[in-house]
Amino acid sequence: MTTTTTPIAANLAAVREQIAAACERAGRDPGGVTIVGVTKTHPPSLVEEALAAGLTDIGENRAQELLPKAEAIKASGLAPRWHFIGRLQRNKVRGVLPHIAALHSLGSVRLADEIERRAERLEADRGTGARDPLPCYLEVNVAGEASKDGIAPEELPELLREAANRRHIAVAGLMTVAPLVDDPEQVRPVFRQLRELARAHGLEGLSMGMTDDYAVAVEEGATVVRLGRVIFGARRG
Question: Of all helices (H) and strands (E), which one includes residue 207?
Answer without folding.
Answer: strand 205-207
